[in-house]
Amino acid sequence: MTISEELSILGLAGKVALVTGGGAGIGRATAELFAQAGMRVAVIEIDASRAAEIRKLLESRGCDCLVIEADVRKGTESRRIISDVRERFGGLDVLVNNVGDYLGYKTEFAESTEEEWDALYAVNLLHLLHMSKAAIPLMREGGGGSIINISTIEAFRGIPLTVVYSAFKAAITGFTQSLAVELGQYGIRVNAIAPETTNTAQIVATPRVPPENRDHLSRWFPIGRFGEGADSAGAALFLASDRLSGWVSGSSIVVDGGALAAGAWMRLQDNGWTHLPIIVADGYTPRPPHPLRKE
Ligand SMILES: NC(=O)c1ccc[n+]([C@@H]2O[C@H](COP(=O)([O-])OP(=O)(O)OC[C@H]3O[C@@H](n4cnc5c(N)ncnc54)[C@H](O)[C@@H]3O)[C@@H](O)[C@H]2O)c1
What residues line ligand 1, using a CB cutoff of 6 Å? Predict the structure, then answer.
């Protein structure tokens, strides 16, 4: 049995999904998995080469897809995007608000600037409002849908040096809960996914850890590894499927290898436990250059 045949039990074949930032990382993995489940998939991507790549990939897999090069931070773009989706597919069942970035800012809050706050607001919160507002009428016309917001574990756990990023991500939790309350009457569910460190284009996690220290991954994470895009994509697939998650709304699913539950606790090499640091590193990862980011 192929994976597509296995996923047919989800009841998603032919449904329409829109994934923002679907050209890399978690968004790309989600677009791919949705395509495997037989969905028609629209992808929004700001980067032209990533847009071309995901279009080629989805088409090669026989997915009825629409890839739009756009910047979701612009409110007017969200109306154009939804109008393009309406024209092409006639409806919208699932919206994944995936774009988000700490933009490379690692600044103590007291030193951070209003310019940074504005940039972080635009890429981590404002576009969720624009995209959701533009999408809701189309979802209502179709009798319902599922909005999935990508947050972060840092919405539920403190993080130094990216305080404002985490504040906007925490706001996604409130947005998700309150919007779920409003939209339930229209058959629209609203949920969030909160990943821990996940290997993507933005976060190059595993290569950052020197090979001689990689065995510590199994001590840092109860599940023993960093996340992959497919981990969050799996949660998105669950939340997209009314058959599986039809009574789940206003929730955040933590996709973190058990890290939040562990808190600061880590396993030692002798299988004892510690909540004291055992590795000296800043916990951030080097990243390839990107025009939107301060490097
Ligand atoms: N990777 C992690 O460790 C991690 C952890 C927690 C939360 N997250 C969240 O998951 C989401 C996805 O992160 P990722 O690591 O997969 O990112 P990524 O940078 O690997 O991929 C994001 C994609 O979105 C595109 N994009 C960026 N700005 C855009 C814009 N304004 N309009 C349209 N497209 C745009 C990028 O070009 C890229 O292709 C983000 O919201 C991020 O905050 C990621």
Answer: 20-21, 23-27, 44-47, 50, 71-73, 98-101, 123, 150, 152, 195, 197-198, 200-203, 292
Predicted local distance difference test score (pLDDT) of residue 282 = 64
Q: Which pLDDT does position 266 carry in this prediction? A: 81
* Domain count across the chain: 1
Would you call 186 a catalytic residue per the annotation?
no
Q: How far apart are the C-alpha atoms of 228 and 230, rounded to whole Å?
A: 5
DSSP letter at 267? E
Residue 74, in any domain of the structure: yes
In a domain, 239, yes or no: yes
**Torsion angle of the four alpha carbons 235, 239, 245, 248, in this order, in degrees rounded to the nearest 10:** 100
Q: Residues 6 or more apart from 159 whose CB is under 8 A from it?
A: 165, 166
Token match 């993507």: residue?
200
Which CATH number fits the domain that encloses residue 244?
Answer: 3.40.50.720
For the whole model, what pTM was predicted? 0.94
Its domain, for residue 48, covers: 3-263
**224 part of a folded domain:** yes
- Would you say residue 268 lies in a domain? no
Confidence at 41, pLDDT banded by 50, 70, 90: very high
Give the angle subtended at the CA of 120 by the CAs of 254 and 24, to the nearest 5°. Answer: 60
